[in-house]
Amino acid sequence: MEQPNLSFITKLSNGDKVFEEKIFKVIRKEFPEEKEKYFLSIKSKNYTKAAEDVHKLKHKISILGLEKGYDVAEKYEDNLKESSEILKEEFENILTNITSYLAETL
């Protein structure tokens, strides 16, 4: 499975460590909140809201260097717009992977 990394943030920052820390801090704060909203939307079968939640999460997936994960999120977002949960398990595995990464990267 593709692993989260800071390569995109490092490239974006052009070596500015303060900028890197700020971006990572935002991700660390927002990701759990957005993930929780997604799970609530899925639990209530509110696919329109779940698609919006996935849309927000996919940007963090991209920033954390998960190119394949971004593709999965993009397709899953489209599926949700059609009230389909196809790719749900794959998407949620990505969320679990990111959650572990953020917990390990203090």
From TrEMBL:
It comes from the Bacteria. Residues 16-106 form the HPt domain. The modification Phosphohistidine is found at H55. Keywords: Phosphoprotein. InterPro entries: HPT_dom_sf, Sig_transdc_His_kin_Hpt_dom. SUPFAM superfamilies: Histidine-containing phosphotransfer domain, HPT domain (SSF47226). This is Hpt domain-containing protein.
